[in-house]
Fold:
Amino acid sequence: MGAYQNFLRRMKAGGNSMRDDQIHNALHMVQETFADDPSYVPDGVTIWNSDRIIHPRIYNQTYRSTSPAQANIHTMIHEPIYMGDVIPWPEHGYWLCVNANNLHGIQWEGKLSFCNHKVKFFSPLTHEIVEYPISVINSTQYGSGETDRYDEKLHMTIGTSQMIVYITFDEHTRLIDGGFRFLLDRNLEKPTAFEVKQADTISYSDAGERGYIHLTVAEDQFDPKRDNKELMIADYVFDPIGTGAELKDNPDMWI
Structure:
């Protein structure tokens, strides 16, 4: 009887298949060497807005001029990651997990998109102020976004910039719908407002309660009567009356 037949007999006697044996060996190797990688985070991180702690390896960062940075992530099998998780990156910020898989019971692996901004708004659920790390892409097509358009409803001319916003799916964000407004800008003196045109809660779902949302937003007019630039929250005043003092101080806001 040859060596291969003896090998098969031993596995059969132990109740294992070749696949089981390979998975067992790979799992053992991962457990023994996982923390040796330079990308390993030894102190661990707590998944944003949860009590789950993971000790990931975050590596292979790539940077593009047209989108936020991307990276790969691995965690050990007892520290799962899920699509939509917001993962702290010590001394750098946050990552949004855009893909996650259990690799045959050996380890978890996934893809990350860097959260290059944060947004504050009133939760549609609790009507309290919430803040989220988000991954934002400028999606303005065929131009600079400086072309004006006249809004018949507002009777004013506003810009045409468009953004794609990726935000984790949860009990608050699932209620964001068309017409919802944000302030998205690093210019805190004259911030730009954006209005949600489409909220896609399905395309980036894990078919359960996890995932993230694709928001398509278009430039809207900043309204000093209802938008709060100090807190960077749109629609801070829900039923604005206004005194006109804001426009007096900033006549450029008259259209």
